Amino acid sequence: MNHHQSQNNDENQYFDHIEQTYYSNFLRRDVVLSIFLPHKKEPTPIQAAFFNDGQDMEAVQMYSTLNHLYDLKVINPIAVIGIHCSALRIDEYGCISSADYMNRGNKAHDFSRFVIEELIPYCRKSFNISTSPKDIAYAGFSLGGLSALDISWHYPQYFNKIGVFSGSFWWRDKPAEGDYNDDIDRIMHRTIQNSSKKEGLKFWLQTGTKDETSDRNNNGIIDSIDDTLDLIKELDKKGYDIHDDITYVEITDGEHNFYTWSAVLPNFLTWAFGGNDYVKTDRQQLAERRHKMWFHLDAMAEAPNVDIMLISDKFDMPQLGKKRAVWALLPKGWDSFSERYPVMYLHDAQNLFNKNAPFGMWGIHKVMSEMIDQGKKMIVIAIEHGDEERIEEFAPFADENGTGGSGKRYINFIVDTLVPYINRNFPSKQDRENTGIGGSSMGGLVSLYAGLYRPEAFGKYMIFSPSLWYSSKIFALAKRVTPFLKSMIYFYGGGKESETLIGEIEELIEILKDRGFEDHHLPLKINPEANHSEAVWGQEFEEAMNTLFY
Q: What positions belong to coiled-coil segments (predicted)?
């Protein structure tokens, strides 16, 4: 089989983390795999857990969790194989027997054949994984959890333990209205009803009391809990022991996101691979994991329409040879993939929605929540800056002291690595007219440079208080550009920032007009009383987004 391998190992840890790309004939695409293996090679075949949504292994802290649990000697040596989803996640996951009422999940059969006929044989051969189903688990989050249970149910000869984190058991073949009937129209429940008992299977099912707010039957219990408890009833009817075969974990204050799933991950892993004395999950552990992952309760409460997600705290930046935290701010319900949204890539994530940022915050999460109320939905991808390396990375050109000059590689990272990743894993509108980039100060400068250097990638630019003073080369570059693609560039400057800023922006705009940019595509907002601050830029964010996208 064709595969590409990259490896990131730490001699002081117990597990190796390997990334591979495997071509699937059933899916007709490359499938990225995040693989975690015991650092010390085991002489006998080892146990293994397969996870859907392998792209989220960093977000749920798989690597650190495995090492921690093994260090405590509460799990055996195991392999974990994380299967990255594609942009067709909503079609590849689901139930084999039937697509849902919107024809989502129509490729679930192909995905199951990939797992059973391609992936498992490959992993058995390559990583010394046991061939006994008693040693193998399959798990997933949300829709990936539904898929894991469905595949395990259809192929019990391959799996013994099933883990479902906040499973999408609402998956149905009729809209939840009219003649919809819970008893017959939920596809996974019906699949179990119409099957015989699958001997040997054991189930670990988790929900959170704040997974969602929907309650379609108005019984005072949110649907995610209702659907999971109803599934347990169906398993009970099939003869599974409610105590020995089924473990139900309901997390008080648990939500439908990675901080909850990362906090409960040790519970699942030790249930599956560590015997009966598995690690318990409590509210204190949730709070600690929430803090560690920088999910701020205040920010979540202030933006009820927005999911704030840490994609990775160590997102690989191969063009720079570094790793950096990358965040996504998304409209609630984005993971249904029922609609797609424009995307704005922003720098300086530390200052965008963290109230404890040293120089203040923009508060874009609150702005986005208000815009969603107005029907204006979008995705913001926020990239953390490199602290003392910030100027070096944002500067397109080196100064007279040789400082800076990594801006080209930074923009190449965004265009060639980050944008494709986002388009594969999130419901983004992928045309350049719906893709923007922006920032303030040095972030404004590097965003402007992105438009001059890689105009094929972005159609919208948000340039706040750009550091045009850094190098006159940005003006020289602008004089050479030819606008072969239409772009809109929103400029903003404060009258109390510097004596030269407004004049520099106006000079640049005139250069761009001379090169062929249309006047109405170069709006300029000047606030005579504004200084150079995060709070001011946050106040301008909504108008900029409305001008660029709406």
A: none
CA–CA dist 78, 83 (Å, integer): 16
Structure tokens at 92: 């590849």
Assign 184 to helix, strand or coil: helix
Q: Around 370, how many Cα atoms within 13 Å sit in the side-chain half-sphere?
A: 12
pLDDT for 164 equals: 98
In angstroms, the CA 247 to CA 225 distance is 14
Identify whether the C-beta of residue 171 lies closer than 8 Å to the C-beta of residue 142.
no
What Å distances lie between residue 445 and 212, 351, 386, 474, 516, CA to CA?
A: 40, 17, 16, 8, 21
d(CA 462, CA 231): 48
In this structure, the dihedral spanned by the alpha carbons of residues 529, 535, 537 and 541, taken in order and rounded to 10 degrees, is -120
Burial class (CB in 10 A: 0-12, 13-18, 19+), 453: middle
Q: Which two tokens stand for residue 134?
A: 């008693």
Q: What is the dihedral of CA 382, 385, 391, 394, to 10 degrees?
A: -30
- Please answer whether residues 473 and 496 qualify as being in contact, where contact means their C-beta atoms are separated by less than 8 angstroms: no
299-345: per-residue pLDDT in tens? 666 888 988 887 877 788 999 999 888 999 999 888 778 899 999 99
Q: 462 to each of 346, 449, 549, how far by Cα in Å?
A: 9, 12, 11
Could you please report the per-residue DSSP string of 50-111? EEE-GGGTTTTTHHHHHHHHHHTT-S-SEEEEEE---TTHHHHSSBTTB--TTSTTTTHHHH
pLDDT tens string 215-274: 888 888 899 999 999 999 999 999 999 888 999 988 888 888 887 898 889 889 999 998
